[in-house]
Design a protein that fits this description.
Distance between the termini: 57 Å
Number of strands: 4
Low-confidence stretches: none
Strand order of the largest sheet: 1-4
Order of helices and strands: HHHHEEEEHHH
Number of helices: 7
Oligomer: single chain
Helix content: 55-70%
Length: 173
């Protein structure tokens, strides 16, 4: 009603109809995905992890495939995009027309791994967001905040803890 042009109004109505239909299709796809994942032996094991619902478990199983790909939690964090990496482009300098390694250490840039599986990062960050406010990891999150850690870093720590728990539970059965 707020759109002045009837053509705009018609297009908006059609987009909302399309959105309503996509919501129905999304629900049906989620039900099918969860039903298929329940047939996998890892589903029962992963369902014991707090903060993981059936949809997240159904997304983790085909993405990770097998936990034995990762020897420890650190490569799993790297694959999930939760690993902190240090990068430096100033390790060498030119002196007298020759390249040589710097003697003085340059401050290096730190950040999360840029090469990661987007779906896994989304799963763990979403679960950590919920867990840090009303879930099983709330006390851990609040303890990190009390130590002076920034909120986003505390949520990252919760996501790491959650992903390490998933890997350990899945491996141990």
């Amino acid at each position: 009603e707020k759109l002045p042009n009837p053509g705009q109004r018609t297009r908006a109505e059609l987009f909302f109809q399309q959105l309503d239909e996509l919501k129905v299709i999304k629900r049906a796809a989620q039900k099918a995905m969860v039903a298929e994942s329940k047939r996998h032996p890892a589903y029962r094991v992963l369902s014991t992890v707090a903060e993981l619902g059936p949809v997240r478990i159904a997304q983790i199983i085909p993405t990770v495939e097998t936990p034995w790909r990762f020897r420890t939690k650190r490569p799993f964090w790297n694959y999930s995009g939760l690993a902190v990496v240090t990068r430096s482009t100033a390790d060498h300098e030119f002196e007298n027309g020759r390249v040589r390694k710097r003697q003085k250490q340059v401050i290096q840039t730190r950040g999360l791994n840029p090469d990661y599986n987007r779906r896994l990062k989304s799963i763990f960050k979403g679960a950590a967001m919920h867990a840090s406010h009303c879930g099983a990891y709330r006390e851990y999150y609040e303890g990190l905040l009390k130590t002076g850690m920034r909120e986003e870093m505390a949520r990252l720590a919760v996501a790491r803890k959650l992903s390490a728990t998933v890997l350990a539970v899945w491996k141990s059965g």
